[in-house]
Amino acid sequence: MNKKLQIVSRHVLRQGPLLQAMRSVSTSMPVLISHRHHIGKEPLVYRTVGQQLELTASKYPDTEAIVSCQEGKRYTFKSLLEEVDRLAAGFRRLGLRPGDSVGLWAPNYMHWYLGMMASARAGLTSVGINPAFQGPEVAYCLNKVNVKAIVASETFKSQNYYEILRSICPEIADADQGKINSEKFPHLRSVIIDSKDSLKGALRFDDCLDLASSSEREEIGKLQTKICPESACNIQFTSGTTGSPKAAALSHYNFVNNGIHVGTRNQLEGERICVQVPLFHAFGVVITIMAGLSKGATLVLPAAGFSPKDSLQAIVKEKCTVIHGTPTMYVDLVSTQRKLQVPLGRIKKAITGGAIVSPQLIKDVKEVLGVEAMHSVFGLTETTAVIFQSVPNDSEDKVLHTVGHLQDHVEAKVIDSDGKCVPLGQPGELCVRGYVTMLGYHGDPEKTEETIGKDKWLRTGDQFVLEANGYGRIVGRLKELIIRGGENIFPKEIEDFLNTHPQVIEAHVIGVPDERLGEELCAFVRLNEDIDPATFTVEALRAYCKGKLAHFKIPRYVFPVEAFPKTTSGKIQKFKLVQEFKERVGQDREAVRV
């Protein structure tokens, strides 16, 4: 057993009330409870994201910080700091002040990265918005956290971000720079679009870089000591059991320290990382951006959106030594490499998270991609990013059957339904405490109190097993979260939307196994009594969902039913829907795909 963990165990045993609760029937053998606090060797630091950027730029001035292959752009840490301060000063010229929120609505383009860093340097709170979101979803985000300015791409795939913004806020087109006046969006003042041409009511991103004078840019450096590390620097949207996304506010202190300790355990110093994950996710903004920043690593963006072919080309051209991606991405990367046989160089490690990794996938990643080791990370948006993580030289068995070892300076316990710690090795709800805990849900004090107790323990909602050696295992989910290709989806949000369909009277959604994505969405719908089932088509439902739900939220399988299995109290028995899916899918899987 790890010596530090032994110390904590002995400390816990010496506490009278806990000692009695831990004892088994035989009083001679105390039962160790599921409570660990892993004290790291590297101390926590008290600095902001902006100060971390400044520190890294002074330590690695000529090292490349980030490369965007698709855009042909690259920055060293020194030139990055200069460009970030240009944008931060531009934000201030637009009237943005510390505490204001800046929405970032774009795929993996350079303007997203610069916008996030510039917001931190200006004392603003960046708000990551899923680039797949449609108008109603974006409108919710803007109002939920009082976004004052939004930085967006002009287009990506079928999305036209500017037109979507105009559709939900028509006042944009007639507004002067920084003076949007909308009753629907009372806080929104500026729209900044990364476009070649000027768009009515919007400011070009490149023009925002040139708004401020050199003296105003210099003021950004002086501003750093006035920004509190414990103030919010980022807001991440995470779905809730009610279906409405919650806005988890994370501090500079959260970001910097989790980035440092993730980077240390992943040994990222001097590495070049192929970034396949979306930057707006915790995997992108903390596990990738902040961890890379803390260790002077180079981030390589192969494309705006995930493309296995572009990833392989970037790995070769930019000499990447580390890959970041979800299991689904690695499945596609392996499949593409088998076809193309790209001559890959030495890849030291592949970092993954967001879903379970199969033994076959680890084997394929090592054999087909030539990766030396595969590491996993586990955490929640509410815990900044990572609370458990693989340790260097972990065995394949540990990577397969655990979510890694408890992260440095994080305290964890596993409790039963009464809130008491269960014995080590027994399942219960995972709770964590420490520097990783979010500030709270923006605008939702009641939900914050439900999640974080007065004793500062954060309840994760995950059914979990904590082992004596500090490793952990997820054995189930207490809530109905569906994880599709790394995207967290709660059924109620989809159910509420499907219930707005004129032919649907009741809808329920479950997660079903999928070889590539881990899970897929399956919807069961009960039609209005006056509707002829023969007139209902999944194609019509698809058309109804498009443009109103993000693509990953649209159910892949749809089954009309006459009634739902329910308990005597009226609760839906979703486990019976899972059984029904298994029976039906064997009959005609293709016919029911949306």
Automatic annotation (TrEMBL):
Domain (AMP-binding enzyme C-terminal): residue spans on this chain = 493-571
Q: Which PANTHER family match?
A: ACYL-COA SYNTHETASE, MEDIUM-CHAIN ACYL-COA LIGASE ACSF2, MITOCHONDRIAL
Q: Which InterPro entries does the entry mention?
A: AMP-bd_C, AMP-bd_C_sf, AMP-binding_CS, AMP-dep_synth/lig_dom, ANL_N_sf
Protein name (Swiss-Prot/TrEMBL): Medium-chain acyl-CoA ligase ACSF2, mitochondrial
Cite the AMP-dependent synthetase/ligase domain residue spans from the record: 54-442
- Hey, which family's this protein in? Belongs to the ATP-dependent AMP-binding enzyme family.
EC? 6.2.1.2
Tell me if Phosphoprotein is a UniProt keyword of this record: no
Against Gene3D superfamilies, the record matches this protein to: 3.30.300.30, N-terminal domain of ligase-like
Q: Which EC class, in a word?
A: ligase
Instruction: Output the Pfam families linked to this UniProt entry.
Output: AMP-binding, AMP-binding_C
- Protein function: Acyl-CoA synthases catalyze the initial reaction in fatty acid metabolism, by forming a thioester with CoA. Has some preference toward medium-chain substrates. Plays a role in adipocyte differentiation.
Q: Keywords of this protein's UniProt record, alphabetized?
A: Ligase
- Organism listed in the record: Drosophila persimilis
A GO biological process held by the record: fatty acid metabolic process
Regions annotated as coiled coil: none
Which GO molecular-function terms appear in the entry? Answer: medium-chain fatty acid-CoA ligase activity
* Superkingdom, natural source: Eukaryota
| Catalytic activity annotation | octanoate + ATP + CoA = octanoyl-CoA + AMP + diphosphate; a medium-chain fatty acid + ATP + CoA = a medium-chain fatty acyl-CoA + AMP + diphosphate
Quick one: which gene encodes this?
Answer: Dper\GL25909
